[in-house]
Design a protein that fits this description.
This protein has 384 residues and is an alpha/beta fold. It contains 14 helices and 14 strands. 41% of the residues lie in helices and 17% in strands. The model has no long low-confidence stretch (mean pLDDT 97). Bound molecules: 4'-deoxy-4'-aminopyridoxal-5'-phosphate and glutamine. Keywords: Aminotransferase, Pyridoxal phosphate, Transferase.
């Protein structure tokens, strides 16, 4: 392995899921739902498989899917992109992030990454051979907000891009418009682009509104928006994501991804297109279900004695196990599957410069059937 990737040799999701499988634990670590997406989507995939959609599709994605993506995005955000030049289908949001960074960032550029981060951001910056600069989120009055001073310090004339994620993994926070305005102001000042990971944009709770940084004044021209069918439609194993943005930025991502995967599994593309067109009610119901599951798991974790930051979005609850006597949250997470039969992920691997702020925390995923959460609750009682 090259030196720049050595720190990324394994991921915490790989490690925790391996332990969960080995000890037959309930996996509230890696975030994936335990029920399928809409039936009509599965049927559409089967039809496509049987109907001969089994050879290379166009590199940008099939036109039907690109049109459906643009329509979905317009309904969610008001943004209007050209399906021909401003929409690229990728192998999950993961490839979208990597392709955007590798295709748009030079070796001597800097990329601002806000901590805690989704782990693939730092690996993508390393693959691009660029320099990473850290900003941070902070806990403030029960919510999680951007530390604007840290962001300002992280930007410089060498900044090419900032990676933005809201609703935010791992914290479950939804960044308010004011925080996004601060990021946008720095993008304008330093002529930087935003790579905006919005894979949880459809999962906000308690009436909290998702704001895309691309909708702020002057930002549509300098933002790549990233989404994932995995999260929208409960099909994380299909690995279908997409990028939208101005043609010159999409072109950078398109160029890089041509040599990563070239294109995306053909029979799954018409199925996702079908679901984006016809299953918007299903997606709306998913949000209601997830909010109820968040409440259920929050009740369980509070009952056991964790301190919680209640998620306003995503699949994830941030929990502080210190009241249970835990002093090393990362080590504790690695023991939990064997000792209790439940898996969670520690925050430490999602940090680097600001580890001290976050490493006492752990993340529990609530995107599971109610009976599974209830069983996890019974097992976690052993900690109370
Ligand atoms: N970004 C965030 C914030 C995520 O949580 C995930 C994983 N769900 C991804 C990107 C990767 O998405 P995908 O599985 O579509 O590659
Ligand atoms: N995005 C999911 C999570 O945060 C899964 C990540 C992964 O398996 N790489 O849990």
């Amino acid at each position: 392995t090259v030196r720049r990737l050595a720190p990324h040799a394994t991921t915490i999701f790989t490690e925790v899921s391996r332990l969960a499988t080995h000890f037959d634990a309930i996996n509230l670590g890696q975030g994936f739902p335990d029920t399928d997406g809409p039936e009509s989507m599965i049927e559409a995939a089967v039809r496509a498989l049987r109907g001969g959609h089994n050879q290379y599709p166009p590199g940008m994605g099939i036109p039907e899917l690109r049109h459906a993506i643009v329509a979905d995005e317009t309904a969610r955000t008001g943004l209007v992109h050209d399906p021909e030049t401003e929409t690229l289908v990728t192998v999950g949001a993961t490839e979208a992030i990597a392709a955007a960074v590798v295709g748009l960032v030079e070796y001597d550029d800097e990329v601002v990454v806000i901590e805690p981060y989704y782990d693939s951001y730092v690996a993508a910056v390393a693959m691009a051979g660029a320099t990473r600069r850290a900003a941070r989120l902070v806990r403030s009055g029960g919510h999680i907000r951007l530390d604007v001073d840290s962001l300002r310090e992280a930007f410089s004339p060498r900044t090419r891009a900032v990676l933005v994620n809201t609703p935010h993994n791992p914290t479950g926070a939804v960044l308010p418009r004011e925080d996004l305005e601060e990021i946008a102001a720095l993008c304008h000042e330093f002529d930087a682009i935003a790579v905006s990971d919005e894979v949880y944009s459809h999962l906000t709770y308690d009436g909290v509104e998702h704001v895309s940084i691309a909708t702020l004044p002057g930002m549509a021209e300098r933002t790549l928006r990233i989404s994932s069918a995995g999260k929208l439609l409960n099909c994380t194993g299909w690995k279908i994501g997409w990028v939208t943005g101005p043609a010159d930025l999409v072109e950078g991502a398109r160029t890089a991804r041509q040599y990563m995967s070239f294109t995306v599994a053909s029979p799954l593309q018409p199925a996702v297109a079908h679901a984006l067109r016809h299953e918007q009610e299903w997606i709306a119901t998913l949000r209601e279900d997830m909010q109820a599951r968040r409440d259920e798991l929050a009740g369980i974790l509070t009952g056991v004695g964790f301190d919680l930051v209640v998620a306003q979005g995503t699949y994830f609850l941030t929990a502080d196990p210190s009241p249970l006597g835990v002093t090393d949250a990362a080590a504790w997470c690695l023991e939990l599957p064997e000792k209790v039969g439940v898996a969670a992920v520690p925050f430490a691997p999602f940090t680097d410069a600001f580890t001290d702020d976050w490493s006492h925390l752990v993340r529990f995923a609530f995107c599971k059937r109610p009976e599974v959460l209830a069983e996890a609750g019974r097992r976690l009682q052993a900690l109370a």
